[in-house]
Each structure stands twice: as C-alpha cells, then as structure tokens.
Amino acid sequence: MRWLALAAVAAVAVAAVVVATIVIQRGCRRAPVQVPVEVRAFSFDKVPVESPDLAVGPAVVRADSYRGYTDWACRLECREPDGCHAEVRLVLDYSGGGTAGRLMVTATLDASQGETMRIGRTQRPPAASVDTVDRLELQVVRPLGADAPTPFVVF
Description:
- The protein has one helix spanning 2-28; strands at 40-47, 59-65, 70-77, 84-96, 99-111, 116-123, 132-143.
- The protein has 155 residues and is an alpha+beta fold.
- The chain has a domain at 40-143: Sandwich (Immunoglobulin-like), CATH 2.60.40.
- It is elongated, with a radius of gyration of 30 Å.
C-alpha cells in the first residue's frame, strides 16, 4: 500500500512539472512587445541655393530625426544646359530650438538638364529640432565630363 501511495504522489509531481513546462513555453512564444519609434519630421520647400558654379533650382530639404540619428535629404533640379556632372560639397546651415547647426555633405552629381538630384546623409547625434534652413550652398569640388564614369560608392 505504501508503494501505491508513493507512486500516486510521484505521478502527480510529474504531471505538475509537465503542466508548468507547457505554461512557461507558451509564455515565451508570445510576440515581443513593439516599442513605437518616435520620428520628428522637418520639411522645407523652395529653399534658395547659393551655387556660383552650377545652375540648380531651389531645393526641397527633408529631415527625419530618430532616436539616434537624423536622416537628411536635399533634392534639387539641374538647370545646366549640358547637365550637372561634378563632385560637390553641400553646406547646409540650420537652426532650431535656440541652437544652430551645420551639415556638410559630399556627393557626385550626374544628371541631365531638368532632372532631380538627391544629396543626403545621416547625422549623428541627431538634430534635436530644425526650425529653419538658414543657408544652403553648393560648391563644385571637381567638375566631371558628361561621359566620365560615375564612381560606385558603397555606403
């Protein structure tokens, strides 16, 4: 009789362990909690561009500021009759939240007249706030021929 009681207690203990294991595994299979990503977007249209060496139209400047970085994009139209073919440096001065900031971007342009060009980069640490784009200057670092090969840049 004693053995029968011990066997019953052991069976109940094994069943409890099995049930606890199943409950724990189901809890681990739940989808992770998605933390919403806070994005602050800044947008400026028809920003005048100081460009003494290359004819370009006013720029559209966009910035999306995330937790660890700001993603900048500047779009402008090529107005050169022979196209825009050059290595350039874009200098963007901005202000926001009582502070001023500067972003410098280098890029290779290869566009025909009337085409839209995009120059952009990631800025770390992120811009806390962007209220205005104070100045936008496009400097030609090196002109390229229209038939020059465009370098392949890996980011």
